[in-house]
Every structure is written in structure tokens, then in C-alpha cells.
Design goal:
CATH architecture: Sandwich
Order of helices and strands: EEEEEEEEE
Distance between the termini: 17 Å
Number of helices: 0
Strand content: over 45%
Helix content: under 10%
CATH class: Mainly Beta
Largest sheet: 5 strands, antiparallel
CATH topology: Immunoglobulin-like
Structural class: mainly beta
């Protein structure tokens, strides 16, 4: 799934909500070229979810790689078309490293959960995003 290119990254805060926990040792780009557009190179599930039945919750581990970005944010959205800018959406996990992994909650009541990754180059305001559909018991 190719990333969509954005025209400008917004400001805004956020929290480390959505039941997300930062884990692993993601790498943060110390200096990002202000002339390079932020882009997503890869974004995938690397563990989970494992749901027993059609209720409760599990966890899912997501991993991403970027180019030209200096931070990432992830928002859990109910459906892919509802995805907004994760950096400015309440409850998003971030800021996260430009390249890394995070473990987030997965709602086993539905067939799928959707995770909206936004990556940003703060030097020039560019951003890119991808929504990942994760099926139950992937």
C-alpha cells in the first residue's frame, strides 16, 4: 500500500494514549534533511493479535521504517476512512521515533482494527501517512 503524501504537517500535541506502550529501542534520526520529504518506506504487523473468541482485547506490535522523517505518530481509528492526522488527534501514540516499533491494544470484538501512521519532517513541514488494516488473529 503506497503512502499518501501530505502538503504540510500540522502542529499540535498529543498523548501516549490509545493503550500504547513504547517498547524496544527505536532509532531517532538526529538530524533530518530539511529539504527531504517525509515518506513511509514500510509499515507492518510484527506480532499479534491473538484473540480468543469475539470479545476482549489483545495486543499488536507495529513496526515502521521511514525516510526524511524525524518523528512518527500512530492513531487507532474505527474505520480506514475515518483516519485523520494522528499528530493532531487526541489519544494518538507519539511522538515516536522515525524508525521503530510500538505495541498497541487490539479490540477483539471486531474483525479488524485500523492503525493510522503519520510521519513528519518538522524542518520543512512535510508529512506522509498510511492506514494499516489488521485482521483479528493475523
Amino acid at each position: 500500500m503506497p503512502p499518501s503524501q501530505g502538503g504540510g504537517g500540522g502542529g499540535g500535541g498529543g498523548s501516549n494514549g490509545s493503550g500504547g506502550t513504547k517498547s524496544g529501542t527505536p532509532t531517532r534520526t538526529p538530524t533530518t534533511d530539511a529539504n527531504q520529504r517525509a515518506e513511509v518506506l514500510s509499515y507492518q504487523v510484527t506480532a499479534g493479535p491473538t484473540c480468543a473468541g469475539s470479545g476482549g482485547s489483545s495486543t499488536v506490535r507495529l513496526t515502521w521504517r521511514t525516510k526524511g522523517a524525524d518523528e512518527a505518530w500512530i492513531q487507532t481509528v474505527p474505520v480506514a476512512v475515518a483516519a485523520g492526522d494522528p499528530k493532531t488527534s487526541p489519544g494518538s501514540a507519539g511522538p515516536l521515533a522515525a524508525n521503530g516499533s510500538v505495541t498497541l491494544q487490539f479490540d477483539c470484538a471486531g474483525e479488524n482494527d485500523y492503525y493510522n501512521l503519520g510521519v513528519y519532517n518538522r524542518g520543512n513541514g512535510t508529512h506522509a501517512g498510511v492506514v494499516l488494516q489488521v485482521p483479528r488473529n493475523a
